[in-house]
Write a structure and sequence with these properties.
The complex is a heterotetramer of chains A (about 230), B (about 100), C (about 425) and D (about 1000).
Chain A lengths: L3 H6 L2 H4 L24 H7 L7 E6 L3 E7 L4 H11 L9 E4 L2 E7 L2 E6 L4 H11 L4 E5 L4 E7 L3 H8 L14 E6 L2 E9 L2 E7 L3 H11 L5 E3 L4
Parallel strand pairs in A: 1-11
Antiparallel strand pairs in A: 1-7, 2-5, 2-6, 3-4, 4-5, 7-10, 8-9, 9-10
Helix pairs in contact in A: 4-5
Chain B lengths: L2 E4 L4 E4 L4 E5 L13 H9 L7 E7 L7 E7 L5 E6 L8 H10 L2
Antiparallel strand pairs in B: 1-2, 3-4, 4-5, 5-6
Chain C lengths: L5 H9 L17 E7 L3 H14 L4 E4 L15 E2 L6 H14 L2 H5 L10 E5 L2 H16 L5 E4 H7 L15 E5 L3 E2 L2 H14 L3 E3 L4 E7 L2 E7 L3 E10 L5 H8 L6 E10 L9 E4 L4 E5 L5 E7 L11 H14 L7 E12 L6 E4 L5 E5 L9 H14 L13 H4 L6 H4 L4
Parallel strand pairs in C: 1-2, 1-11, 2-8, 4-13, 11-18
Antiparallel strand pairs in C: 3-7, 4-6, 5-6, 9-10, 10-11, 12-15, 12-16, 13-14, 14-15, 17-18
Helix pairs in contact in C: 2-7, 2-10, 3-10
Classes of the chains: A alpha+beta (about 230), B alpha+beta (about 100), C alpha/beta (about 425), D alpha+beta (about 1000).
The complex binds flavin-adenine dinucleotide, nicotinamide-adenine-dinucleotide (NAD), flavin mononucleotide and zinc ion.
Zinc ion (ZN) binds next to loops of chain B.
Chain lengths: ~230, ~100, ~425, ~1000
């Protein structure tokens, strides 16, 4: 337990190892999202123009950065704000600005999602701006985001998550980590009928199976991310 | 099935998101090496396991991943309060008994 | 004691069943007994019976706060087997098994002990390693058992899905042919009737609310209905309520009381002839002689004295059963309930002297003590009679949790059963 | 067929929709709107089954959930069989196929029935406990027959083709029951804007009003219902669930509602539509308005077909336009049941008499009506016995004293074919008891009503003993208001109490508390008087049980099986308790009641399981390289949720051949393993190092940046529970690996200590298991292969030492490479962000081809590490071994200042005693013989059973590289027994001889990994 006074002062960036984990520039190497094998693109093309009561889009290959720190540490909170131009959201809230979003996960944990190509730049900004005891962890390879929209999504969610997704309890801009079928997800609502699920890579296939199964009575249409 | 207020998420969630993690307020002995086998055994295994008011540790496992304490009646399963690690319960077996006596 | 038999039944039929003797008296307790047994479950009643029968101590009272056999005895899934891993426990459960095999005749009460065999399924390589290890040990301990592969299992349980379809296909199982089920109520009643006949006073609706201790020795109990009753020795056989009893005596036990739930289907025609248990998918099932499928679950994670648990535990159990037996999906669950199981850190019981002289505990059977009922009673009777742990009880002292000589049966005890 | 009992008009059936069903292979017509029961009665079917113990013919008695007899087998195909369907709750659909459950060769002529009447005398309660014991060997034979006789319907023998799902709901107010009370409450609740769910088990809302002739606000009651339903439907926040039974009320106001979505349409659900749905509902407040069940009276031969509940008679007439007979005798203890006779009369059939058990008879209102209709009313009398076998032929009536315990007159015989009885109404309190609340007896209600509870629950209507319609409506409104306020809403204007609908106020004479009609003979000798029809429990049986000493009502239940059936005693329990009480000279409240538990009515396992079956039973986790493994023929092993490649057989190879090939490749050239599933935890913070020192047994203070170290993790008991390598990435930054199966547990373990014990330690843990893919290249050629794929760093032994890690670029992708080894060979573990995992794997495979790079799975990995004597937590440990047992004292640092987790535990007396079981290696005498894992060691294989066992084999393989078998095992005091011989007895009677040795079989100095 190092001295409390020193603690706020050490230079975070010098105490941890962060590295750019994306391919060297102009290598042309593309990553594979966790759902690549499901070949959502082909399905999306095949059903282009169709309207589903549940529309699914994978927001693949984004930058996912976990932030840990205490709200009582201004070196952390202000550092994040400097790096992202966004203040950390309150409990169960999500904020978003110019393709950068922050999801509240826990009193000392947030998930920052950024465009894939900017992920290291933003990670570096965070690493360099925050001070004191905190953590900035790149988890981009470990998760993906599914966007669900349509008139039956709320019903689909009622089949899948135990918590209340009614607008009175789950307004736009809320985010929770919860049970999703037999795995877990970070669930947020971006509009009346649009939701996002952050899921873990290794469970992605299971979630995909579950979604297809649950949507059997609805009309599920895959949409490309663009 | 319990409906549990997470003091960190500040709302009620379904029990499926939580795990019970045993009796609360069992601090690890500060100097284990000085403990006798009996003392260490008591710390490891022996529990109050009360019928009635019980303080226990829960973790919001599929949620904020934070541990917290709960005071619960093990007979009727009523949750009396939740409170954060490091805090002390307001409701105890003794306080309930006193309240019952006063007819509150 | 009036002897039961088919002939007797006929005789009573002719007199319109008007002349049956009482199965037990309803005595007013004496002021003092040689031994008081607190808890009129299967174990307590068996203890009283063997004390009287084997050790000739008949000045005994069994004090039961509710009705005889109404605790976990009334609510268990009745699986009986003895294929435990470690020598100490295998010996104890096999001792019980041998007593089971002659119990109906010994008690002159048909406890419907049905040796229809028990399968413990393995679904992973590690499951199979554990099964092999246990069966090897059982064999060298003289306990019947073999390891079966999926094909052999299919022959025994044709209705089970032994194909590759399930999420965790069945790889094999241990098979104890002598295992099976018994009628739980009959066990309690059979012991109660036989104990009563030997002079044991069975006192129902009598809750022990305090243990009276003088100079570090227990001298009697305070009850809610009959005041103080004195005794030279006291044996607590109170399962889920043991910690409450220990508190009365001023010490703690290494126990947690958890809800353990079970459920039954509606009665259906015979379709399942053996007991099937799976630790991995977490469920176990048998079909009773009444036709209902008797199904058990894992414990609920929290402490609870409410004799009920959480619904999602039931869901998981039923999912496991439907996974193993997709044909049961259209069969219906009739009733669910719960018991209070006294789980011990090493999944083995406590049969032990305590810090209080003349006070003994028999508890910690947790999710699996029904199968031990005769053995537990027999061994605890010997302990109470001698005033110190009998040979077979010795490894099960509560003090093992100080020195660390645990007998970890989590593998064999697995899910609740 | 004719539907001879169908009335020309009336009822809520769709006469223009005639449909057909079959019962016992004969086809019958019915109408949409019928239940199977009403259609059977319409067609004059008297016998619907045989009782299970005495095999007596049985007919339909009730019209709802309380029905004990009409338990049918449904299903047109094997896969769609459903056992034990209550005909009274099954809506009729076209093509429905039903058969009766018991009865051989058929229900009308039953062999067992003939036997049953002789055997019946031999089958008092608990007879099986008293016999079948001698000779001992015969029990299994007896049991076979007992089993055959038991059980109702049969399970299908094919898998269910239908789907079932779950639906999570949250509500402010749930109302159970859509009778007058429930609907009134719902209306108020709905108007407040609260989120309301109202569920009713019946196909239509209205509850008792569906078959009532009462008026509300001056109009037929169902008009009021229609209006209310219309208003509720228009409320966006109201969910109305017909055909939905609230079958369980769990803690903290959690309800399960079982909705039968398509059971009324067909045998099988339409594709993609769930047959049944389980609503899992959390509600702030719950209003129970579940009504009540009518009780029959208990008298001799009261099970003969034609004996029915009075209210059921009314229901069949009013709701289904079916009169279930021609001549009715009604026996009642109350005014209310008179309406059954009036309805019967109105249907144009003969009412032979109303037998009112009360000396004072009924109130003027109903008596006048009976008189005006010319119906004979006999007061102060009772039907003591029914005559008839397959249908009621006549009944004997006798005068009864005013308390109902003695017959006072002579018997009069009345000819009739139907005997309806009403002993009053038992509130449907079931749900209120599910969370442990005990009901209380009310002498006024003559029934149990809900007792105190900690649930946020209100009760209203007949469940509360409120039996008059006007009060049900008014109380419903008032209760609705209370629920609204309790749930934190305000009342909408115009929904005040005064707004409640109103019905006629009826004045009645008080009912009589009577359950069991005396017989001229003592109960034990009278013809059977049934209490629980499904379980053949009789009044005599209950009396006998109490006389034998089964005095607790729970004992009575368990001894006689009263209330054990699929109806859970809805019809018989109160009568049974009353008879038990009387027999012991106690009151009913003294005797008490048994406990109601879920389910209210039985629920299919399918609906409870929902979609979580087959492929969705438990998630399968895949690594980023999974597709490659599939394409390359891997077989998989389940490890936790993960599917890991087990081995990669090539065409024509046996498992053993594949393993030997894979092993040899690693030892001779190179192999590659997908190690992505290992748990990986990112650890950051100024106290990270201190923390590691506390949770691992070894020292971490001096681990330099750029270095890796192996660690053992123990519980506070000192027993090993996980292990893995942790690397120091930077001053305050580490990455920990855990076993695949232990990942979640280890993370929670770290968190609990950080959050609860040592919050002063500044350290954060984050899982990065899924983020990194790990490609392990191992073998003498590993460096060559690495050199081929690594773009930028020096991989020489000097530049990149064993237990170092480095950042490198692999085929254009940044990676962390760890030079650690679990095979004992030169090894590199390449970690890249998982989005590039497959790509790196493929690149490695491509470049490695020149070096015979061979993919291998977990099995080969296990063999390779066993050759080195490395443990696998979980396989070589079982929670009862500490590091010293494993011979891994080198991984324990006793010098650390802090008493790390496990230190104190492993010093307890039993842990330091001499003769513990210790991990050793084994070589078999016959080098080709592999000792089966799990085998137990003995010193002398010829000793008698029980043998003294020394320990078991944890890991055992044939080592292709060494040319002999190897094993790791525990042996008591094994560390001091090197070179000694032990035996492993096998099931076939042989014993395998083995010599104790070091578990490190290959390269004990560890040179191969250091090259
Ligand atoms: C759902 C479930 C399924 C199970 N399945 C199996 C199985 O398949 N196989 C198996 O072997 N085991 C099983 N068990 C475990 C088994 O039921 C128990 O281990 C065993 O019945 C314990 O018997 P007992 O006599 O010790 O306890 P109990 O039957 O619980 O008896 C203890 C008695 O003590 C009384 N008592 C408590 N406190 C007091 C007091 N202060 N004063 C007076 N009396 C008191 C209680 O009322 C109770 O009657 C299961 C348990 C449950 C709950
Ligand atoms: N006069 C009398 O003696 C007498 C006696 C009893 C009842 N009644 C009449 O009965 C009515 C009582 O009204 P009420 O609203 O209290 O009851 P109700 O019987 O009209 O309605 C209760 C409804 O709840 C449903 N239900 C019960 N349990 C359920 C469950 N678990 N899940 C889903 N649905 C369930 C029933 O099927 C029924 O439709 C009044 O009309 C009253 O006059 C009269
Ligand atoms: C092996 C076994 C079989 C049972 N079978 C039935 C059954 O067929 N029908 C039933 O209603 N209850 C059955 N029960 C459950 C009991 O009714 C009761 O719920 C249980 O003994 C717990 O008691 P309690 O519910 O009074 O607390 C069974 C219980 C056991 C242990
Ligand atoms: Zn939380």
């Amino acid at each position: 337990m190092s001295d409390q006074n020193n603690r706020a002062e050490f230079i975070y960036a010098q105490t941890i190892n962060s590295m750019d984990q994306r391919p060297v520039s102009d290598s042309g190497i593309e990553g594979r999202s966790p759902l690549k094998h499901a070949d959502l693109d082909t399905q999306a093309t095949a059903h282009q123009g169709e309207f589903g009561t549940v529309q699914l889009t994978e927001l693949e290959l984004l930058g996912h950065i976990v932030l840990r720190g205490k709200l009582s540490n201004p070196g952390f909170t202000q550092g994040v704000e400097r790096a992202l131009g966004l203040a950390l959201p309150d409990t169960l809230k999500m904020v978003e600005k110019e393709q950068v979003s922050i999801r509240w996960i826990s009193p000392d944990e947030w998930l920052v999602v950024v465009p894939g190509e900017r992920s290291y730049e933003i990670e570096q900004a965070l690493v360099n701006e925050v001070q004191g005891h905190c953590a900035v962890v790149n988890v981009s390879g470990g998760q993906t985001i599914l966007r669900l929209s349509g008139s039956d999504v709320q019903k689909l969610l009622q089949k899948s998550v135990p918590l209340d997704v009614h607008p009175r309890s789950f307004p736009i801009g809320k985010v929770v980590t919860t049970v999703f079928a037999k795995t877990q997800a970070v669930l947020s609502r971006s509009s009346e009928q649009q939701w996002e699920l952050v899921i873990r890579r290794s469970f992605a296939d299971y979630v995909w199976l579950w979604l297809q199964d649950s949507c059997a009575e609805f009309k599920l249409v895959i949409k490309q991310n663009k | 099935m319990f409906y549990i207020y997470c003091p960190h998420c500040e709302e009620h969630r379904e029990e499926e998101e939580f795990h019970a993690a045993g009796e609360a307020h069992i601090p690890r002995p500060l100097d284990p090496d000085q403990c006798t086998d009996q003392e260490w055994g008591e710390y490891l295994f022996f529990r109050n396991n009360p019928r009635g008011i019980h303080h226990e540790l829960w973790v919001h496992a599929i949620g904020c991943r934070k541990f917290f304490n709960m005071t619960r009646d093990t007979q009727n399963y009523e949750i009396k309060e939740v409170y954060k690690i490091g805090q002390q319960p307001k409701i105890t077996g003794a306080s309930e008994a006193a309240a019952a006596k006063e007819g509150v | 004691m009036q002897k039961y038999s088919g002939f007797g039944l006929l005789k009573h039929a002719l007199s319109h069943h008007e002349n049956w003797q009482r199965v037990w008296r309803n005595p007013v307790p004496k002021k003092k007994y040689d031994v008081i047994i607190v808890g009129g479950g299967g174990h307590g009643l068996a203890t009283a019976y063997y004390l009287a029968k084997v050790h000739g101590i008949t000045n005994i009272a069994v004090l039961e706060k509710g009705y005889l056999g109404g605790g976990n005895t009334a609510r268990n899934t009745t699986i009986v087997r003895s294929n435990y891993l470690w020598d100490e426990s295998a010996k104890l459960y096999e001792h019980a098994m041998k007593l089971w095999e002659g119990l109906s005749q010994d008690l002159n009460y048909n406890v419907m002990f049905s040796q229809r065999g028990v399968l413990n399924l393995g679904h992973t390589l590690q499951d199979m390693r554990d099964i092999e290890r246990r069966v090897h040990a059982n064999r060298l301990n003289g306990i019947d058992g073999e390891v079966l592969d999926a094909q052999q299992i299919k022959e025994i349980v044709p209705m089970m899905d032994c194909s590759d379809r399930p999420r965790y296909p069945i790889m094999g199982a241990s098979w104890q042919p002598r295992g099976g089920v018994a009628r739980h109520d009959a066990v309690a009643w059979g012991y109660a009737r036989a104990a009563d006949a030997l002079g044991v006073d069975l006192i129902q609706q009598c809750e022990v609310v305090d243990i009276i201790i003088e100079d570090g020795a227990a001298t009697g109990v305070m009850t809610n209905s009959h005041g103080v009753i004195e005794a030279d020795r006291i044996g607590c056989v109170t399962a889920g309520n043991s910690s409450v009893m220990a508190k009365m005596a001023g010490f703690r036990l290494p126990l947690e009381s958890h809800p353990l739930q079970a459920l039954v289907s509606e009665p259906i025609k015979p379709i399942l002839d053996t007991v099937v248990m799976s630790n991995h998918v977490h469920g176990y099932i048998s079909q009773s002689d009444k036709g209902d499928l008797v199904i058990g679950a894992g414990i609920d994670g929290y402490n609870g004295y409410g004799q009920r648990g959480s619904y999602h535990t039931i869901e998981h159990t039923v999912q496991a059963i439907v996974e193993l037996f997709p044909v049961f999906s259209r069969v219906r669950m009739n009733r669910q309930w719960g018991g209070i199981v006294d789980t011990c850190p090493d999944a083995c019981p406590i049969i032990s002297a305590t810090p209080v002289e003349n006070l003994f505990f028999n508890c910690g059977w947790g999710t699996g003590g029904f199968k031990a009922t005769p053995g537990s009673g027999h061994v605890f009777a010997a302990t109470l009679a001698a005033g110190e742990a009998s040979e077979m009880a010795k490894p099960f002292s509560m003090f093992r949790f100080y020195d660390g000589a645990l007998i970890d049966e989590h593998g064999a005890a697995g899910v609740a059963h | 067929m004719s539907q001879q009992n169908r009335l020309k008009s009336g009822g809520r059936i769709a006469r223009n929709c005639q449909i057909n069903f079959s019962y016992n292979n004969q086809s019958y017509p019915g109408f949409v709107g019928d239940t199977l029961a009403s259609a059977m009665l319409a067609n004059g079917i008297d016998i619907v089954g045989r009782s299970f113990k005495y095999s007596r013919p049985r007919g339909i008695v009730g019209a709802g959930a309380e029905e004990p007899n009409a338990i049918m087998q449904l299903g047109a195909t094997e896969a769609t069989q459903v056992p034990n369907v209550r005909a009274t709750q099954q809506e009729l659909f076209n093509g429905l196929v039903a058969t009766s459950t018991n009865g051989w060769p058929n229900v009308d002529f039953d062999m067992m029935g003939a036997l049953g009447s002789i055997g019946a005398k031999m089958m008092p309660p608990g007879f099986y406990y008293k016999t079948f014991m001698y000779p001992k060997s015969m029990w299994s034979t007896y049991e076979k027959y007992i089993r055959k006789a038991a059980g109702l319907g049969r399970s299908p023998r094919e898998s269910d083709p239908d789907r079932y799902d779950h639906y999570n709901q949250h509500a402010d107010i749930v109302i159970v029951g859509a009778g007058p009370a429930g609907l009134s409450a719902a209306l108020v609740a709905a108007r407040s804007g609260a989120r309301v769910i109202i569920a009713d088990e019946q196909a239509e809302f209205g509850g008792s009003l569906l078959d009532s002739t009462a008026l509300i606000d001056g109009e037929p009651a169902m008009q009021w219902v229609t209006k209310v339903v219309a208003e509720l439907t228009a409320c966006p926040e109201v969910i109305m669930l017909p055909r939905a039974t609230v079958n369980g009320y769990h803690d903290h106001n959690f309800l399960t509602i079982h909705e039968r979505c398509t059971d009324h349409i067909a045998d099988r659900a339409p594709t993609n539509i769930s047959k049944q749905r389980m609503h899992r509902v959390r509600s702030r407040w719950v209003v129970l308005a579940t009504g009540s069940h009518e009780r029959p009276l208990v008298f001799a031969n009261n099970d003969v077909p034609g004996c029915m509940l009075a209210a059921a008679v009314s229901t069949y007439i009013n709701r289904y336009a079916v009169v279930p007979g021609n001549q009715l005798v009604l026996m009642t203890t109350n005014d209310n049941a008179y309406s059954a006779a009036f309805d019967w009369h109105a249907a144009g059939r003969e009412v032979v008499a109303i037998v009112d058990t009360r000396s004072g008879g009924a109130g003027a209102q109903v008596v006048d009506k009976a008189n005006s209709l010319g119906i004979r009313v006999i007061s102060g009398a009772a039907v003591v016995e029914v005559q008839g076998s397959k249908r009621v032929a006549s009944v004997s009536v006798s005068a009864l004293n005013s308390v109902g315990d003695k017959l006072t007159g002579t018997l009069e015989q009345l000819k009739c074919d139907t005997l309806a009885s009403s002993g009053g109404w038992s509130p449907a309190i079931h749900l209120s008891c599910h969370t442990g609340s005990r009901p209380v007896w009310s002498d006024q209600v003559i029934g149990f009503i809900p007792g105190k509870t900690v649930q946020k629950q209100l009760v209203v209507g007949a469940i509360n003993g409120t039996f008059d319609l006007q009060s049900c409506l008014a109380d419903g409104t008032a209760t609705g208001e209370l629920a609204v306020l309790n749930a934190g809403f305000t009342l909408a204007s115009g929904s005040e109490y005064s707004d409640a609908a109103s019905a006629e106020i009826v004045t009645e004479n008080p009912p009589m508390a009577l359950y069991h009609i005396p017989h001229p003979k003592p109960t034990s000798r009278a013809p059977k008087q049934f209490v629980d029809l499904q379980n053949d429990v009789t009044a005599a049986g209950i009396e006998m049980a109490t006389l034998e000493g089964f005095e607790s009502i729970e004992h009575v239940k368990r001894y006689t099986a009263m209330g054990f059936g699929t109806d859970q005693g809805k019809m018989g329990n109160i009568n049974g308790m009353a008879i038990a009480a009387k027999s012991m000279g106690k009151t009913i409240p003294e005797t008490g009641t048994t406990i109601f538990r879920p389910n209210y009515t039985p629920v299919t396992f399918g609906a409870i399981a929902g979609r979580h079956c087959a492929g969705l039973f438990d998630p399968m986790r895949f690594s980023a390289m999974h597709e490659w493994h599939m394409e390359n023929g891997a077989l998989f092993e389940d490890v936790g949720n993960w599917k890991r490649p087990w081995y990669f057989p090539q065409a024509g190879e046996s498992m053993q051949q594949a393993l030997e090939r894979e092993c040899l490749a690693v030892r001779e050239s190179a192999g590659v393993l997908d190690a992505s599933t290992l748990g990986k935890i990112d650890i950051q913070g100024p106290d990270a190092r201190e923390f590691l020192g506390r949770v691992y047994t070894n020292a971490w203070a001096k681990l330099a940046i750029g270095k890796c170290r192996y660690g053992l993790m123990c519980g506070e008991d000192g027993m090993v529970f996980d292990d893995g390598v942790t690397a120091c990435l930077a001053e305050n930054h580490f990455i920990m690996t855990t076993t695949t199966g232990g990942a979640a547990r280890v993370l929670e373990w770290l968190e609990i200590y950080q959050q609860t014990e040592w919050p002063e330690l500044d350290v954060y843990f984050n899982t990065v298991t899924d983020h990194f893919s790990t490609v392990t290249v191992t073998g003498p050629k590993a460096r060559k292969i690495l050199e081929a794929v690594v773009d930028d760093i020096d991989l020489s032994n000097d530049a990149f030492k064993y237990m170092d890690w480095k950042v490198a670029t692999v085929q254009g992708i940044p990676a962390r490479i760890f030079r650690i080894s679990f095979t004992g060979e030169l090894s590199f573990e390449i970690n890249v962000q998982a989005n590039y995992g497959l790509r790196i794997w493929q690149a490695v495979m491509e470049k490695g081809a020149a070096y015979n790079l061979t993919p291998y799975g977990t099995e080969t990995m296990h063999i390779l590490r066993a050759e080195k004597g490395f443990i696998i937590a979980g396989q070589d440990t079982d929670g009862s071994v500490h590091p010293y047992d494993l011979g891994m004292g080198w991984a324990v640092s006793t010098k650390k200042a802090f008493s790390f987790i496990g230190k104190r535990g492993m010093q307890r007396a039993d842990c330091v005693k001499e003769d513990r079981k210790q991990m050793v290696g084994l070589k078999t005498k016959d080098p080709l013989q592999v000792i089966p894992e799990g085998s137990q060691a003995v010193n002398d294989p010829n000793q008698p059973i029980p043998m003294t066992m020394l320990g078991h084999v944890t890991s055992s393989y044939y080592s292709a590289c060494l040319g002999h078998s190897i094993a790791m095992a525990f042996i008591r005091n094994g560390h001091n027994r090197m070179g000694e011989t032990v035996f492993y007895p096998q099931p076939d009677g042989t014993a395998i001889e083995a010599i104790i040795c070091s578990p490190i079989f290959l390269d004990p100095k560890g040179e191969r990994q250091n090259v």
